[in-house]
Design goal:
The complex is a heterodimer. Helices cover about 65% and strands about 5% of the residues of chain A. Chain A is mainly alpha-helical. Chain A has two domains: about 100 residues, Orthogonal Bundle (Arc Repressor Mutant, subunit A), CATH 1.10.10.10; about 80 residues. Chain A has a three-stranded antiparallel β-sheet with strand order 1-3-2. In chain A, α2 crosses α3. The C terminus of chain A is likely disordered. Chain B is an alpha/beta fold. Helix content of chain B is about 35%, strand content about 25%. In chain B, α3 packs across α4, α3 runs parallel beside α5 and α5 packs parallel to α6. The two termini of chain B are about 35 Å apart. The chains are: A mainly alpha, B alpha/beta. Chains A and B meet through α4, α6 and α7 of A and α7, β9, β10 and α8 of B.
């Protein structure tokens, strides 16, 4: 569904900008550059989208203007408490397989590793559990599928394999985050506070 | 709900390797009921094989309790634990499952005969177990006359022959291609639906997806688990934010 897709893209931009503002007040041009830097420009934004989104976020009370315009007339925005809660809720919830463009997960993780205070390993595990649940549902449908319904069974297989690829990628992300954190135990943006999954627990 | 077939409560297991203590399991709670297949997923070194060994009485926990069909293994003598292993627990491993000099039927009936069941009765039970995994027609074949998938099916029959209700499988599809591996998982799942309690240890998400519940193990701790009920709630709860 095109409108659904467009909706979830705009939701991802909202959350992406909010996550970037977690690092400190910033204005539209800067946010666009940081978004591109964090996501490797896989999802380029134009500055118009950024300002439209900021205006909506301000309307919704998630961001507020920070001080007066600078010499070039640019206005910086900062997160409100409500905006901060929204960021936390976004990182805490899995990406919905059915509605979201697949890139949202890549974007979420790219921002998670660069946003202070985010437990990346728990973002990874939240997604892994969600994807595994979806995979179990596909497999359950396969068990129930009539033996002669090869077409349906193959469609289900395609969903299973796609989910598997995502989990393998999450495993890979987790291993790399843990290794990066082990290499730089201090002053790192990568937060690994939850003791059981944190690098301190690793040998 | 009836008592679980397998219950791990606060199980820890320390190994000493080269003078250093390794905490393979650090307080694991797990209950597996009849009719349920639970997958334990984790990277290598997460403690999943240790968990399976402890659950099957092949290894003892450093602390915590392991109950198989309501019997606390720590309170039993070595001989009694061995009896639990033979009578209550069936194992399926990645390879080295079948004795090459015995037919499928003999491989399946052997554990019963070792346990004192009379030959004719043991063979009848073995034939039933082979029928249940769709291998009845190949009962007379030797392992080298069967495909990898067929051998693994025989191994599942052997693991569940007689009154045993706890099935422990360690990467049972490891050496098989994806289609054959899937057949083995289908049978494993069917056996659990028919009343066995199963624990499947794997690092493959696609295999774990055959389970009713997936437990994620990291560094000897269960960090999360997924199941159909939890999944639906998670999706509903996430609906507002996504």
């Amino acid at each position: 569904m095109d409108t659904e897709y467009a909706y979830s893209v705009s939701m991802s931009i909202r959350h992406g900008l909010l996550a970037l503002l977690e690092r400190g007040p910033s204005h539209g041009y800067q946010l666009r550059a940081e978004f591109d830097a964090a996501t490797g420009a896989t999802w380029p934004l134009n500055v118009g989208q950024v300002y439209t989104t900021l205006a909506r976020l301000e309307r919704d009370g998630l961001v507020a203007q920070d001080g007066v315009p600078d010499t070039e007339g640019r206005i910086a925005y900062r997160l409100t408490d409500q905006g901060r809660d929204e960021v936390r809720a976004w990182f805490g919830s899995p990406v919905n397989q059915k509605a979201a463009p697949r890139d949202e997960l890549a974007i979420k993780l790219a921002l998670a590793v660069t946003t202070p205070g985010v437990d990346v390993l728990s973002v990874v595990q939240t997604q892994r559990t969600s994807t595994m649940t979806a995979m179990q549902e596909f497999t359950r449908l396969k068990v129930r599928a009539a033996e002669d319904d090869l077409a349906w069974s193959l469609v289900l297989d395609s969903m299973v394999f796609r989910a598997e690829a995502e989990i393998r990628w999450l495993d890979h992300c987790e291993a790399r985050v843990a290794r990066a954190a082990a290499r730089r135990p201090q002053n790192t943006a990568v937060e690994t506070s939850s003791a059981p999954t944190g690098p301190a627990a690793r040998r | 709900m009836s008592a679980p077939v397998l219950l791990l409560a606060g199980v820890t297991r320390d190994h000493v390797q080269g003078g250093e203590t390794v905490h393979a399991l650090r307080g694991v709670d797990l209950a597996v009921h009849a009719g349920e297949l639970v997958a334990v997923m984790g990277p290598s070194g997460s403690g999943k094989s240790t968990l399976l060994h402890v659950a099957g009485g092949l290894d003892s926990p450093t602390s915590g309790r392991v109950l198989v069909e309501d019997r606390d293994l720590a309170t039993l003598s070595a001989a009694q634990v061995a009896a639990v292993r033979r009578r209550s627990v069936g194992y399926v491993f990645q390879d080295l499952n079948l004795l090459p000099s015995l037919s499928a039927l003999e491989n399946v009936s052997l554990p019963l005969e070792l346990d004192g069941t009379r030959g004719s009765m043991a063979r009848r039970a073995a034939r039933e177990a082979l029928d249940e995994v769709g291998m009845g027609a190949l009962a007379g074949r030797f392992p080298d006359e069967m495909s990898g998938g067929q051998q693994q099916r025989v191994a599942i029959a052997r693991a569940l022959v007689g009154p045993r209700r706890l099935l422990l499988a360690d990467e049972p599809t490891g050496a098989l291609d994806s289609t054959t591996g899937e057949e083995v998982l289908r049978i494993l799942r069917a056996r659990c639906e028919a009343g066995a309690a199963g624990v499947l240890v794997t690092h493959e998400a696609r295999h774990a997806a055959w389970a009713d519940r997936v437990v994620f193990l990291r560094d000897g701790v269960v960090v999360d688990q997924s199941g159909p009920a939890a999944g639906a709630e998670t999706l509903l709860a996430a609906g507002g934010g996504a």
